[in-house]
């Protein structure tokens, strides 16, 4: 998929809704731009730490608090 956007006043761009949905972007989301050696840019969605919540839980075991893990 290729999308072209226009830079408006103040350097702002508006991403089309379809692209925002595909990337999971909401208001306040952060994007990281990295320039490759050949001049191209890679754009990555910077996920908040809160998006990792529950990532390490196992369905066959009850949730454990940090305090319980430290015991």
From TrEMBL:
Residues 2-48 form the SpoVT-AbrB domain. GO terms for molecular function: DNA binding. PROSITE patterns: SPOVT_ABRB. It comes from the Bacteria. Keywords: DNA-binding. InterPro entries: SpoVT-AbrB_dom, SpoVT-AbrB_sf. SMART domains: SpoVT_AbrB (SM00966). The keyword Zinc does not apply. This is AbrB/MazE/SpoVT family DNA-binding domain-containing protein. The lineage of its organism: Bacteria, Pseudomonadati, Pseudomonadota, Betaproteobacteria, Burkholderiales.
């Amino acid at each position: 998929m290729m999308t072209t956007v226009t830079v408006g006043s103040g350097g702002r761009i508006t991403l089309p809704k379809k692209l925002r949905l595909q990337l999971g972007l909401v208001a306040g989301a952060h994007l990281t731009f990295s320039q490759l050696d050949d001049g191209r840019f890679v754009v990555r969605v910077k996920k908040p730490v809160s998006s990792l919540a529950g990532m390490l839980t196992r369905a066959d075991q009850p949730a454990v608090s940090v305090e319980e893990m430290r015991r």
